[in-house]
Amino acid sequence: MALIAALKRLISAPKATRQLKFTPHQVSRMAEYQKWTRADLINRIFELEGKDPSTAQGAVPDPPVKASKAKRNESYDISRHPVRKIAIRFSYLGWNYGGLAVQHEDTPLPTIEGTILSAMQRCRLIPESASLFDLDFSRCGRTDRGVSAFSQVIALKVRSKLSPEEQQDAANDNKELNYIHILNQLLPPDIRIYSVALRLPEGFDSRFSCEYRHYRYFFHKGDLDIDLMRQAAKLYLGEHDYRNFCKVDGSKQLAHHNRVMLEAEIEQLSDDIYYFNLKGRAFLWHQVRCMMAILFLVGQKLEKPSVITDLLNPEKYPGRPVYDMAHDVPLVLYDCTFKEPIEWITPNAMPQERMENSNFKHWHDVMLQSTLSLAMMKHIAERTGSERTFPRAEDGDSDRVAVVNGSGSFSRKIPYVPISKRKMLDTPDVTNEKWRKRKEATQ
């Protein structure tokens, strides 16, 4: 009965004075008992005292299962609870995700929406079997793989703590579920929800209720001519046909590619970091990355600013000339503004100290990695005596250049072919027709 005596001493002795001695046979099992609660240990003693001492030498059993909790989980029916439509505003770093939009099929990387919806299912805010249509789901600005957002918005129906009648009274808002706190506990640190709207305008849709979207594309100055890039950026302002600044998707069957740009400027963030500041009512697929790619060519003096005016003319370029898009990672959906005012609230989602610690930890890790990376590159530059930021054409070989794409790497040095001499892709009309024929052939 030495095991029983040891258990009793473990319960009664203060934690600081529990200096117990066990036989080698008991050591491995006692390590498991250390994890048990006081109540579980007492129950185990009662169990052992009612058995033959030889039985006490058997394997340590698993801790008791709290049947009541398991029973509650099995009987929980989300359909019995009231629902309400809310909008959430959140930020994310898209580097480790396969884009924003949830996909019907498996993807190599998780998506932002898939991660958020999974968290909502885990905390029973939405049913596991619900479709996006059932949830009345909408998103503001779709971002592709690698692209981040500082202010993204989605709207959907979720479980509510309040009855439909209670939801009508704004005085009850502070009694509602703390959606921010609940979700941020389950989401990874590179996805952060920071405000919620409980009272949306009638018929609110995150996409169609948006007045304009605001993007920023960050880049290192290097050897780029910022003044030329600023001249070129201004040519994007106003309404234009952007067929040559996007990837044409035949499945969309778009009749036109006109878009309105409200702001288009090159701004300075720090000594060597700039960003392309762009606001527009709506955007085409990969439009910002294509616009930035041409600005890089202008900044390298490979093209004149007037190339933008030419590309915006569908009579001169009925199809897009072949060129590579700018890199995805530096692109950020910076903000979005809606036609009607939205009452965003940011409750005290968690105790202030805990919230600050959580945010600081993630910021500190990213800051430290960035600082060390810059220090290492500076160290290498000092040791090698190299001050060049971008690869340049070799002496006597001025037609061979390294084209900047915003990723920090460069296209291999090849003779540069001006945009005006490049092959053009199919026009949007031809692309749409080809897609229709392929669809008809498969029906």
Short description:
32% of the residues lie in helices and 17% in strands. The protein contains twelve helices and eleven strands. The protein is globular and about 90 Å long.
Question: Can you give a write-up of this model?
Answer:
It is found in: Nucleus. By secondary structure, the protein is of the alpha+beta class. Among the domains are: 2-57, no CATH class; 80-197, Alpha-Beta Plaits. It is built from twelve helices and eleven strands. It has helices at 2-12, 24-33, 38-49, 67-75, 112-122, 164-167, 179-186, 226-234, 287-299, 306-311, 352-384, 428-442, and strands at residues 83-92, 138-139, 148-159, 191-197, 210-220, 238-241, 258-268, 273-280, 331-338, 400-401, 414-415. The strands form two sheets. Strands 1, 2, 3, 4, 5, 6, 7, 8 and 9 form a nine-stranded mixed sheet that branches. A two-stranded antiparallel sheet has the order 10-11. Helix 1 runs antiparallel to helix 3 and helix 8 (226-234) packs across helix 9 (287-299). The termini are far apart.
SS field, number of helical segments: 12
- So, the CATH homologous superfamily of the domain at 80-197? Pseudouridine synthase I, catalytic domain, N-terminal subdomain
Q: Mean pLDDT, rounded to whole units? A: 83
Residue stretches low in confidence (pLDDT < 50, at least 5 long) are: 14-20, 51-72
The structure class reads: alpha+beta
Helical content class: 25-40%
The fraction of residues assigned to DSSP E strands is 15-25%
Return the string of H and E elements: HHHHEHEEHHEEHEEEHHEHEEH
Which outline best applies?
globular
Global Rg: 30 Å
CATH C-level of the domain at 80-197 = Alpha Beta
From the N-terminal CA to the C-terminal CA, the straight-line distance is 78 Å
Assembly category: single chain
CATH fold descriptor of the domain at 80-197: Alpha-Beta Plaits
Major sheet: size, sense and barrel closure?
Answer: 9 strands, mixed
**What would CATH call the architecture of the domain at 80-197?**
2-Layer Sandwich
**Topology, number of strands:** 11
